[in-house]
Amino acid sequence: IYRKIGSINIRDMALGAKKILERSYMDKNRVAVWGWSGGGSSTLNLLFNYPEIFKTGIAIAAVANQLNYDNIYQERYMGLPQENREDFVKGSPINNVKGLQGKLLYIHGTGDNVHYDNAEMLLNELIKYNKQFEFMAYPNRTHSISEGVGTSIHLSTLYTNFIRKNCEPGAK
């Protein structure tokens, strides 16, 4: 997927989910996805680009804009933005927020190495297009969102409650 992060991998995940959903016992109305870091970016891209498949998502510590992330990582897999800007833009969730139809919980630590302005840029795009979502910022928490007394239990309670509320368990 060199130079195509956010495109090829997202398409492959969506096609895999679509194939699984062909099974008669699968509930197409309760398809949820979640991820952290690159998985959080994937979650956003899946919700924004494949809303007919993914109804609920939790994105933690996501890179919303590949042009605004650590060049040591990003350029290793995407090449240089000066040479491949179109794919940086195409693979960035921030450019596809208009597609959001489902439920989104977005979580980010303000001390993350995925700089907090990534979160703010995404939030502004979601607001711009009147996309409703839930958001939780963890003050001074890094990429692991583990610092501070009570943080881990708070985080796990937050995303567990969100998924229970928006993707109700049990047979239908």
Give a written overview of the molecule.
- The protein has about 170 residues and is an alpha/beta fold.
- It has helices at about 10-20, 40-50, 70-80, 80-90, 115-130, 150-165; strands at about 30-35, 55-60, 105-110, 135-140.
- It has a four-stranded parallel sheet, with helices on both faces.
- Strand 1 (about 30-35), helix 2 (about 40-50) and strand 2 form a beta-alpha-beta unit.
- It is globular, with a radius of gyration of 16 Å.
- The N and C termini lie far apart (about 40 Å).
- The model has no long low-confidence stretch (mean pLDDT about 95).
Outline the secondary-structure elements.
Blueprint lengths: L7 H13 L11 E5 L1 H12 L6 E5 L10 H8 L2 H10 L12 E7 L6 H13 L5 E5 L12 H16 L6
Parallel strand pairs: 1-2, 2-3, 3-4
What is the overall pLDDT average?
95
What structural category arises from helix and sheet content? alpha/beta
What gross morphology would you assign?
globular
Strand order of the largest sheet: 1-2-3-4
Unreliable parts = none
Helix count, DSSP H or I runs of 4 or more residues:
6
Largest sheet: 4 strands, parallel
Q: How many DSSP E strands?
A: 4
| N→C terminal distance | 38 Å
| Fraction in beta strands | 5-15%
Please estimate the helix content: 40-55%
Order of helices and strands: HEHEHHEHEH
* Rg estimate, integer Å: 16 Å
